[in-house]
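Throughout this chapter, every protein is written as a compact record of paired, labelled lines. An example of such a record is reproduced below:
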Amino acid sequence: MEGGRWYSLGVRFTCLGCGRCCRGEPGAIWMTPQEVLAMAEYLGMSEEEFRRRYMTFRWGRQSLRERPNGDCIMLDPEGNRCLVYPVRPAQCSLFPFWPSVMSSEENWERESRRCPGMGEGRLWCLEEIEELLKSSPFPDL
C-alpha cells in the first residue's frame, strides 16, 4: 500500500448539498478567531454580537451553537443551505477529510452511511487528502 495509508489509492467524494453533515447528532464546530471575525463581518454584525448570538463552548473550545434538534445554527432549515457558506469554518469545508474520519477505513465507512456523497463523484488522490489533513486547524477533529 503506497504511503501506508488505507486511502493510498484515493477516495471518491463529492458534496451533494444535502446538509446532512450540518444536522443531527450533537457535535462541535470549532473555529479560529479569524473565522469568527469573518462570519461576523459576512453577517454584518460585530464580533461581540456574533459571539453572543451564535457561539458556545464545547469540549473546551469555542463552537457554533446548535438548535435543540442538533442542527447547526448556521443551517437555514428551509433552504437547507449554510448562512455563512462563503466564509464557513475550515472544519466545515474540510469534511469529510477530517483526521478522525480518515484515520481508518472503518471510520470512513461509518461516516459514509450518513453522507451520500462519500464514495461518489470525484476521486481524491493520496497527495490531495494528505494536504487537506495537514491544513486542518484542529488536528484532533
